[in-house]
Specification:
By secondary structure, the protein is mostly helical. The protein has seven helices and no strands.
Length: 211
Amino acid sequence: MSTPLSKEEAFARLGAITREMHEALTVLGGNQLSAIVEEIPNARDRLAYVGKMTEDAANKVLTLVETAKPECDDLATRGVELGESLARLAASSDMSVDKARGLMVVCGKFAQSTAKFADGQGAVLSDIMMAQDFQDLSGQVIKKVIDIITRTEMQLVQLLVDSSPAAPSSAARSSGTEPVTVDNHVLEGPQTADSALKQDDVDDLLASLGF
């Protein structure tokens, strides 16, 4: 059987977990992510769902690009060839009407194929744009995960405050300074949405508890 953790060991482990979650949340930038998807049952599935949507969208875009590139290369090659033919005709001293008419026919066909190519590429671009619609859903899913992490983080911080040992931390004892007093009002936060708990407040609170 494993040895039960002492109060100090449990407190230290809980603090380390809280610090790790807080730093992860800071890196993610929760305030920049968007709305919510409630069908997915838990945070792990939500993140897996985001990964799947992102992978599908990336594969779709790659397929569209791989399909369109040969057509672009072909048009570029035919354009170069037509330009060279026109240059030779312009430099020719014996340009006949038949040659000019023949080249005009080639130019007409090239113009038609270019218009058709433009229509096709427009459809490809539309498909690529539609493939990005996963961002709306993934943003909602990530926002839900961020909300879960934020609530858990605040609950863990509050638990740290409530169960903080009365003795000063080892860092405070070694430096000869008094332990920092924890301001519980930091956790309460103002009641307006635009004045939410600042990340620096959580950093200061965790630091005051020795983490």
